Amino acid sequence: MNADRRLEILELLANDARLTARQIAVMLGEPEEEVCAAIAELEANHTILAYRTLINWDKAGRSRVLALIEVRVTPQREVGFQAIAERVGRFPEVKTLYLMSGAFDLAVLVEGKTMQEVAFFVATKLAPLEGVTSTTSHFVLQTFKEEGVIVEDGEGDHRLVVSP
């Protein structure tokens, strides 16, 4: 299977991870066995990292606190930011981690049950790491869109009507 077809498979799975190989094969006009083999290869070479479900946790009744932590670090000789990023990424509280350009080095998305839990994580685990020079925390107040999907509560417009 050529590279363009593999990209099409990835696009289809990125939009709907529940698609079966058979459905993808029909959509692309390819034999199911070849689609299965391509997906297996993409999983084996870590192009496909995971299959996930995007959940509106507020609607599910589970409260959570998300915070974006800006982290400034001192890069280490010969490994740069890699070693500290790997160390930060191992914490289960860290959901997403990016190396950034600009005023800070790492953008860390942290999830906890409460603001205190997130603050405790930053104060006791993240900030004390060797090489971390400062952190700035920004708590998420509301999620409007996540991974390309608009998060709606399904209860309609809550704005007040303004009339003269």
Any chance you could write out the topology, listing elements then pairs?
Layout: H1 3-15, H2 21-28, H3 32-44, H4 57-60, E1 65-73, H5 82-89, E2 94-99, E3 106-112, H6 115-126, E4 132-139, E5 145-146, E6 149-150
Helix pairs in contact: 2-3
Count of DSSP H/I helices: 6
Strand fraction: 15-25%
Category from helices, strands and their pairing? alpha+beta
List low-confidence stretches. Answer: none
How are the strands ordered across the major sheet?
2-3-1-4
Approximate helicity band: 25-40%
Name the assembly state.
single chain
Biggest beta sheet summary: 4 strands, antiparallel
Determine the mean pLDDT: 92
End-to-end Cα distance, whole Å, is 64 Å
- Report the C-alpha radius of gyration, rounded: 21 Å
The total beta strand count reads 6
Which of globular, elongated, flat, extended, rod-shaped describes the shape? Answer: flat
Q: What is the string of SSEs from the N terminus onward? A: HHHHEHEEHEEE
